[in-house]
Design brief:
Blueprint (H helix, E strand, L loop, with lengths): L6 H25 L1 H8 L3 H17 L1 H11 L1 H19 L5 H15 L2 H12 L5 H27 L7 H21 L12 H8 L4 H4 L8 H6 L1 H22 L1 H9 L3 H33 L6 H18 L5 H17 L1 H11 L4 H28 L5 H23 L11 H6 L1
C-alpha cells in the first residue's frame, strides 16, 4: 500500500509562519511607540487611538474576512490579506503624521482580521478531524511565538536606525509581501488540487472531512443561524471573557509592575515576555487534550472540557494575585494566566471546524469578533477601576484582579455549553420543527 504523502503537514507549518508574521506586525507599534510619539509629535491620547483602532477594525472585519475565505478559498484570499496588511505595515515605516499612521493602523486591523478565520478554514480542508485540535494549536503557537520574539527583534532593528522606529515596519512589510507570493504559489484550497498530494493522503484527509460539503462554495453567512445557536453564543462569551483577562498581560502588566513594585524598565520588559512563552505550552497542550477528549469523551465534552478547565485555572491565578505577591511571583501567575488561556484556544478553533460546515471561516470570525471586543474594552475598564484609587494603586489593582477572577467563573460555566454534536447552519430550521 502506498504511504500517504505529508503535504498536509507542510500546509500547517506554512500557516503557522503566517501567524508568526501576523504578530510581528501587530505588536511592532507598541515596541517603538515612544520613539514615534517623540518623532511625530503625537500626544498620549493620539497614541492610545493608534493602539485601540487596530482592535476595533480587527473585530469588526472578522466575519467579512471569514466569508470571503469560505467563498473564494484561502489561496487567493489569505494571500491577498497577508499582502495588504504587510503593505500597510511597510507604509507605516515611511508615513508621517497622526492621520496617516491612524489610517494605516486601521488597515492593519482590517486585513489582519482575515488571518485566523482563514487559517481555521485551511485546517478544516487539510487536516483530518482527529488531528484538528493539534494542528490548530500549532498554528496558534505561531502567533504567540511572533509576539514573544517581536520585542527583542524589533528593538534590535530599530537600534540600527537614526530615528529608531521606521526600519522594522519596512522590513516586516517587505517580508510579508514576499511571503504572500510564496503562499499563493504553494498553497491549494483542497488536497486533490495539489500536485504533490498522492491519492493515499487525499483519502486520509477527505475520508474524515465531509468532502461533498467542503467543495461547495459558501453563500452569505447564515447570520440568523449564528444568532440562534446557543453553543456559538457560549463560545463567543468564552472568547470575550478569555481575551478580557488575557489582554492585561500585553497592555497593563508593565504599568502594574511600575506602580506597585517600582520594577526597572528592562526587567519589566523581560517579565512581560515570559507569559507569551508559557502560552505556547498552553496552545500545544490544549490541542492535544482536545483531540484526546474527542476520542475518549466524544463530541459533547471533547472540546468543552479543556476550555472550561482553562477558565478555572485563569480564575485561580487571578485569585493568587490578590495575595500581593512580589514581582517574580506575580510573573509566574501571569504565566499561568497565559498558559491556561491558551489551553482553550486550539479547542475553540477545532470546534469551529467541527460545526462550521461550509461557513467555518465565518463561524470562526464571529467568535473571534467577540473575543476582540473583550480585548478592546478591558484596558479601558481596568484603567477606570485603578483610577478610582489614586492614593493606593495596589488596592486599585486588587479590584482589577477580582474582576478578572469573577469573569472566569462565568467563562467556565459558558464553556460547558459548547458542543460539537450539531452543525450551526440550519439551526433555524431545526428549531422550527
Amino acid at each position: 500500500m502506498t504511504e500517504p504523502t505529508r503535504v498536509r503537514h507542510v500546509m500547517v507549518v506554512v500557516t503557522t509562519l503566517v501567524a508568526v508574521m501576523l504578530y510581528l506586525d501587530r505588536v511592532c507599534l507598541s515596541i517603538v511607540g515612544e520613539q514615534i510619539k517623540s518623532d511625530q509629535n503625537i500626544s498620549p491620547d493620539q497614541y492610545a487611538w493608534l493602539l485601540s483602532s487596530f482592535f476595533w477594525a480587527y473585530a469588526l472585519f472578522q466575519i467579512p474576512a471569514g466569508w470571503l475565505g469560505d467563498r473564494y478559498g484561502a489561496r487567493v484570499v489569505l494571500s491577498a490579506y497577508l499582502f495588504l496588511w504587510s503593505a500597510c505595515t511597510g507604509l507605516m515605516g515611511v508615513a508621517s503624521g497622526f492621520a496617516a499612521l491612524l489610517l494605516l493602523r486601521l488597515g492593519c486591523g482590517m486585513f489582519e482580521a482575515g488571518a485566523y478565520p482563514l487559517a481555521s478554514g485551511v485546517i478544516k480542508a487539510w487536516v483530518p478531524v482527529r488531528e484538528r485540535g493539534t494542528a490548530s494549536g500549532l498554528v496558534a503557537v505561531g502567533g504567540r511565538l511572533g509576539g514573544a520574539i517581536a520585542p527583542v527583534l524589533t528593538a534590535s532593528i530599530a537600534a540600527a536606525t537614526v530615528d529608531g522606529w521606521r526600519l522594522p515596519f519596512i522590513i516586516y512589510g517587505v517580508a510579508g509581501m514576499m511571503g504572500a507570493a510564496v503562499f499563493f504559489l504553494w498553497f491549494r484550497n483542497r488536497p486533490n488540487e495539489h500536485p504533490a498530494v498522492n491519492d493515499a493522503e487525499a483519502s486520509l484527509i477527505n475520508g474524515e472531512s465531509e468532502p461533498a460539503k467542503a467543495h461547495i462554495k459558501a453563500t452569505i453567512p447564515p447570520l440568523k443561524d449564528f444568532a440562534m445557536s446557543f453553543p456559538l453564543w457560549m463560545c463567543s462569551l468564552v472568547q470575550f471573557l478569555s481575551n478580557f483577562a488575557w489582554v492585561f498581560i500585553i497592555t497593563l502588566f508593565p504599568t502594574y509592575l511600575k506602580e506597585v513594585h517600582d520594577t526597572p524598565l528592562a526587567t519589566r520588559a523581560f517579565y512581560q515576555g515570559l507569559p507569551l512563552y508559557a502560552g505556547i505550552l498552553g496552545m500545544v497542550a490544549g490541542g492535544w487534550l482536545s483531540d484526546l477528549g474527542m476520542r475518549r469523551c466524544g463530541h459533547r465534552w471533547g472540546r468543552a472540557m479543556p476550555i472550561a478547565a482553562g477558565r478555572v485555572l485563569v480564575g485561580l491565578a487571578y485569585v493568587g494575585c490578590l495575595l500581593q505577591p512580589d514581582p517574580i511571583s506575580i510573573t509566574v501567575l501571569m504565566c499561568l494566566v497565559a498558559l491556561a488561556s491558551d489551553l482553550g484556544t486550539a479547542p475553540v478553533w477545532a470546534w469551529t471546524q467541527d460545526v462550521g460546515g461550509r461557513h467555518v471561516g465565518s463561524v470562526m470570525g464571529w467568535a473571534n469578533m467577540w473575543g476582540n471586543f473583550g480585548a478592546a474594552l478591558a484596558p479601558w475598564i481596568f484603567t477606570k477601576i485603578r483610577g478610582g484609587y489614586p492614593d493606593d494603586p495596589a488596592a486599585g489593582w486588587a479590584v482589577v484582579f477580582t474582576v478578572c477572577a469573577a469573569t472566569q467563573i462565568v467563562g467556565a460555566i459558558a464553556a460547558l455549553g459548547i458542543s460539537s454534536e450539531q452543525q450551526i447552519e440550519g439551526v433555524m430550521k431545526r428549531s422550527d420543527v
